[in-house]
Amino acid sequence: MPWRLKNFKAFTLQDCNANFIELIEKTRAHIVMLDFPIDGKKCMEILQVIKDRYPTLPVIAMSCNNNINTVACAKGFDGYIEKPFDIDLLYRILRKIHRKACRTVPNSSKAHHHENGAPG
């Protein structure tokens, strides 16, 4: 099902260069999804830049890394989804995290969302 039918807009960057912050600002992103490769070093740098600038913006890790559930929460992601994933599961997780983010007051504690979308 196309993203627009689920009331989502997706913007992608092939290569995360300096333009990613500009894209977040321009699109007024509600959620950021980062592909978390096996080593995840560059992804962690990007996460830090996003969280320094937008501390309440939810950032979700997508990965085929078999321990993404522990890595994502430990490193400061707001949630994760294991690849390959079911698109309906992705929609549920995005909606749940977006609703929570809309209710969250800045500087409040963050809940980590797991693959079933439940807070951890």
Automatic annotation (TrEMBL):
Q: Name one Pfam family in it.
A: Response_reg
List of residues that carry 4-aspartylphosphate: 35
In Gene Ontology terms, what is a biological process of this protein?
A: phosphorelay signal transduction system
Q: By its UniProt entry, which InterPro entries does this protein fall under? A: CheY-like_superfamily (IPR011006), Sig_transdc_resp-reg_receiver (IPR001789)
- Keyword Nuclease part of the UniProt annotation: no
Boundaries of each Response regulatory domain copy? 1-98
Tell me the keywords, alphabetical order.
Phosphoprotein
Q: What is this protein called?
A: Response regulator
- Species of origin reads Pedobacter frigiditerrae
Taxonomically, what lineage is the organism?
Bacteria, Pseudomonadati, Bacteroidota, Sphingobacteriia, Sphingobacteriales
